[in-house]
Amino acid sequence: MGDEIRRNMALFPIGIVMKLTDLTARQIRYYEQHELIVPARTSGNQRLFSFNDVERLLEIKSLIEKGVNIAGIKQVMNPVSKESEDATVVSELSEVKRRELSDAQLHRLLKQQLIEKRPGKASMIQGQLSRFYNKK
DNA sequence: GTTCTAACA
DNA sequence: TGTTAGTA
């Protein structure tokens, strides 16, 4: 269960998630309004996304590209689980880590995340994140 | 400089 | 969805 916390650990601000997913801030916030994702918040009300959130966004993105609308996605995707909802917000700690998190470290985290042994989801996520982490 | 909410071309 | 206004 150590992996659970790692995936639900809120680490990145919307700017990084934009690069990771290739979605606009508008879209990301819009999907949150429709409860497709429930990112954590810092004490200053800034969103903090976890790997889980990024995965969900990538899944949403792929569905959108297939022509599915929000209503359709809501039916296909499981509602946000309770664990991923609260197993997070180490606000102070996360904010500190966020400052230290940059290119090199982000790549390391992404690689570590992508290498995890997960048959189903891993493949899709890897395909879409590879863009980001193979460049620069 | 970045992110947030709200609102409208 | 894009984009802009006014903040924090």
Automatic annotation (TrEMBL):
Keywords: DNA-binding, Repressor, Transcription, Transcription regulation
InterPro entries in the cross-refs: DNA-bd_dom_put_sf, MerR-type_HTH_dom, MerR_fam
Matches recorded under Gene3D superfamilies: 1.10.1660.10
Highest taxon of source: Bacteria
Entry annotated with the keyword DNA-binding: yes
An annotated Gene Ontology molecular function: DNA-binding transcription factor activity
Annotated ranges, domain HTH merR-type: 11-79
This protein's name: MerR family transcriptional regulator
